[in-house]
Specification:
Blueprint: H1 3-24, H2 31-38, H3 48-58, H4 66-76, H5 80-94, H6 104-123, E1 128-140, E2 147-159, E3 163-171, E4 174-175, H7 187-190, H8 202-208, E5 215-224, E6 227-236, E7 244-247, E8 250-253, E9 255-263, E10 269-277, E11 285-299, E12 302-318, E13 321-336
Antiparallel strand pairs: 1-2, 1-13, 2-3, 3-4, 5-6, 6-9, 7-8, 9-10, 10-11, 11-12, 12-13
Length: about 350
């Protein structure tokens, strides 16, 4: 055999492991690469998840400027998941030591403590009422070009033996009439996309129940409102899922995947991302996702972890027309059940301030 060929083969054997290692640790994305990715979104919005996964896997190699934030917002329709993914990547870039993942055993221990705390909280949730301020928008096709639809004020009463009950208090600041009754679903009074039954503790409890057979994976660290968190990806297969999508009279059970952000100090979920999976092709809703932020709120004399902000996105196909819906929700005025919720004026923009990036 030719000596030169033998030498080349030896070099290949020596350097192939190094090449494999390099390939398993791709370099961070440059600003040019991120710009090229987001420019694809107006024509191919379905690539959003692919871009998010790429940013989460590789990180970024450049400071996240106001100009880049503005560009991503304009090209993605201010997509919340993409926006938060970039902010996470910026924190990892600025402080890679603080954002290093702990050993798997430590992450699993935190997950089990959180499972116990969440299920216990679901069993001891007090009866309460709260006001939802909902800003609804729609977009035609899959453009993410959001057009304001209306502003809703919803009273929500939660009782352990009944779950959530909803009542429309006002639409665009105009109080509802006596014909509007409290019910499990308020969509018949307002039309369009509504959000019921997913914003409180039940969805999180389902995530941690053994029968859901949820698969968790520690993937990242993050800073949520100054709290150090561990980020876990999860998946629930359709046969074990409790997630139901409803469109008119039709409903369907679907699977789900997403992320949870767990406070490393108090073992509680501070952010919950849920994306519907395994949706039947014939079902009117073709995509559904939600992102919920939780924080400590006072009810009576005690503190509970409950939602403060939420965003729900739906894509619905009807008569060959595709319509996207976005509900931005703020939760205000948690009180003991039995207090009176007064109708407020039309939702003002100060109720939905522009989100500022969280400081690393």
């Amino acid at each position: 055999m030719n000596h030169k060929l033998i030498k080349l083969l030896l070099l290949a054997v020596i350097f192939c492991p190094a090449l494999g290692k390099a390939q398993s640790q791709p370099s961070p994305l440059t600003s040019r690469e991120v710009v090229a990715l987001v420019y694809e979104l107006p024509k191919h919005p379905e690539r959003r998840d692919e871009i998010v996964d790429e940013i989460r896997k590789r990180g970024i190699a450049f400071p996240l400027t106001a100009g880049m934030r503005s560009l991503v917002a304009s090209k993605s329709g201010s997509d919340p998941i993409l926006r938060r993914t970039l902010e996470e990547a910026e924190r990892r870039r600025v402080n890679p030591t603080a954002s290093a993942r702990p050993p798997v055993a430590e992450g699993n221990a935190l997950l089990e403590l959180t499972r116990t705390a969440t299920l216990a909280a679901a069993d001891s949730m007090p009866d309460f009422i709260v006001k939802q301020l909902i800003k609804r928008s729609v977009a035609y096709g899959t453009t993410n070009n959001w057009l304001p639809q209306d502003n809703l004020t919803i009273a929500v009463g939660y009782r352990a033996n009944q779950g959530e009950q909803y009542k429309v208090l006002a639409i665009n600041g105009i109080p509802s009439g006596p014909e509007v009754k409290e019910s499990r679903n308020y969509s018949k009074y307002v039309g369009g996309a509504s959000s019921t039954g997913v914003e409180y503790i039940s969805a999180l409890a389902d995530l941690f129940k053994p029968e859901s057979r949820t698969e968790f994976k520690l993937v990242d660290t993050d800073l949520i409102r100054g709290h150090r968190t561990l980020v876990f990806e999860y998946e629930i297969k359709k046969p074990y899922s409790q997630l139901t999508l409803s469109s008119g009279e039709a409903s369907a059970t679907v699977g789900s995947r997403g992320r949870i952000w767990i406070d490393r100090e108090v073992n509680r979920v501070l952010r919950f991302e849920q994306i519907a999976t395994e949706i039947e092709p014939s079902f009117p809703i073709t995509a559904a996702s939600s992102l919920i932020d939780y924080d400590w709120v006072v009810i009576g004399e005690n503190k509970f972890v409950l939602p403060t902000n939420s965003e729900i996105l739906l894509t619905n196909v009807s008569r060959k027309m595709t319509l996207q819906s976005r509900n931005e929700i703020r939760f205000r005025g948690y009180q003991k059940f039995g207090a009176e919720l007064k109708v407020i004026d039309e939702i003002d923009e100060k109720d939905f301030p522009p989100e500022k990036p969280e400081k690393p």
